[in-house]
Design brief:
The chain is an alpha+beta fold and 439 residues long. The chain has helices spanning 13-19, 27-40, 70-76, 96-102, 128-134, 149-157, 180-200, 202-206, 271-277, 282-286, 327-330, 343-374, 392-410, 414-427, 429-434; strands at residues 45-51, 58-63, 107-113, 122-127, 140-142, 160-166, 215-218, 221-222, 237-248, 251-261, 288-293, 296-300, 316-322. The chain is 37% helix and 19% strand.
């Protein structure tokens, strides 16, 4: 048998780099992807600057992490870098630095210093205009002379990495990049990015990820964490957590679920906190699942097709935690802003999610009925208390009760169900309790 013959087909660098610019980043997500690299490098401080200077405007992200050697820097600018990611690292595909940066600009410069004792820095620039003209995968080897003074200041004080975005063609208008609209756009993007970073890295900012607290600033102002579960609100209800073993093909791992019912408006500590906890998508669209990959938030809200968004369940939020060993199961995308919950896990999530939503519905309706109705026979839920594993019979009864709750909510007849429960508690209290409907 004649052995097969192979022909090498090198992709057009000019065409492929332009195509990769549209991989799915917006400005905040692109900045967040670079902060991922800073976290992986062990940084304690990350400073982001969005500097308006007309056509010379730039974005700078600086960290005090471990820095890179010259060879590591060259590799970092390779599309699909040849490096292995350890478990728990926030990187995945070896594309983030390049695709995130070039989704917003045509030239990205990376300056880095690895040694504390030797004040030597390495500088490389990936410029799409150069790549397009030569149609080759080229990077420019530069000295420190062309760096902004701000970048030099960071790297003369110690180790770290500075990334600079220039030629912001995807950010500023091609005509009149020096105008007032361009300035306002950069200011708005800085504000949105600050909120985004405070959300997706809130555990790092709070110092709940192994004791190391991360500090991120935007244009010199410290970014505050936004924790979607309002941990400092006394009226918040927490339901028992769940742990699921997931196996898909030869991939297996553990997913942790925590469930919360946030307080109704009048039970929040302040009006300001209620408005703040509504989140960037506001209350209705912020209900649902918050999915964390290695403590970094990658999805914020929505029920992933398990149920629909409902005004009456807007106080329900739940976290799902998985580590990087389950990346293939959750199909996390390059921009790290979308995951797919596997079918096996979706089936296991239905019952605890329905229970959470029924609790949130009750909390919402109790508030809506007002003071007069609170004196009547309306039922007020008590927080669930874990009493050990249930028997199959008890579990089946509670499943039936949850199904009744879910069906009544979807049919718009939950008030009727509450009236039925009131009768059951009088006529057949054991049945009401067995179904998990008794308060």
């Amino acid at each position: 048998m004649t052995p097969p013959k192979f022909q090498s087909i090198t992709p057009s660098a000019a065409r492929l780099t332009e195509s990769l610019r549209d991989i799915g980043y917006d400005f905040p997500a692109a900045v967040a992807d670079l902060v991922d690299n800073s976290v992986s490098a062990g940084a304690e401080h990350v400073d982001v600057f969005v500097e308006f200077d007309g056509p010379e405007s730039y974005v700078l992200i600086a960290d005090d992490g471990a820095g890179m050697s010259e060879s590591a820097l060259t590799e970092a600018l390779r599309f699909g870098s040849r490096r292995d990611y350890e478990q728990g690292e926030l990187g995945r595909y070896g594309l983030g630095l390049k695709t995130a940066s070039l989704s917003q600009c045509r030239a990205v410069t990376v300056a880095t210093r690895k040694s504390v004792k030797v004040p030597r820095m390495f500088v490389r620039t990936l410029d799409l205009d150069v790549v397009s003209e030569a149609d080759q995968w080229l990077v420019l080897k530069l000295g420190r002379e062309g760096l902004p003074q701000r970048a030099l200041t960071y790297l003369t004080e110690g180790t770290g990495t500075v990334v600079i975005w220039e030629k912001l063609d995807r950010v500023l208008p091609e005509s009149r990049p020096e105008g007032g609209w361009a300035r306002r756009r950069l200011d708005a993007l800085a504000k949105r990015t600050s909120a985004h970073l405070g959300m997706v890295f809130h555990r790092f900012l709070e110092g709940t990820t192994g004791g190391r607290r991360l500090v991120i600033t935007m244009n010199g102002e410290k970014i505050e964490p936004w924790n979607p579960f309002a941990p400092h609100e006394a009226a918040r209800m927490e339901l028992p957590s769940q742990r699921f073993e997931v196996t898909v093909g030869n991939i297996s791992g553990t997913v942790q679920m925590s469930r919360y019912v946030l307080p109704a408006k009048e039970h929040f500590s302040s009006q300001e906190q209620f408005e703040r906890m509504s989140g960037p998508l506001k209350w209705n669209r912020q209900q649902g699942l918050y999915v964390y990959r290695a403590d970094r938030l990658v999805q914020w809200g929505g029920w992933n097709g398990i149920r629909g968004i409902d005004e009456h369940t807007k106080l329900a939020r739940a976290s799902l935690d998985f580590d990087t060993d389950l990346d293939g199961v959750f199909n996390i995308n390059v921009a790290k802003v979308r995951v797919t919950v596997p079918v096996q896990l979706r089936q296991m999530l239905e019952r605890p999610i329905n229970e959470l939503c029924s609790r949130a519905d009750e909390a919402y309706r109790k508030t809506a009925r007002g003071a007069d109705v609170r004196k009547s026979s309306s039922r007020v839920p008590r927080q669930a208390i874990w009493r050990g594993p249930e028997s199959p019979e008890v579990s089946a009864m509670k499943d039936a009760g949850l199904a009744l709750r879910a069906a009544s909510m979807q049919a718009g007849e939950y008030a009727a169900l509450l009236r039925i429960v009131a009768v059951l508690e009088t006529e057949a209290p054991a049945v009401a309790q067995g179904l998990g409907l008794s308060t």
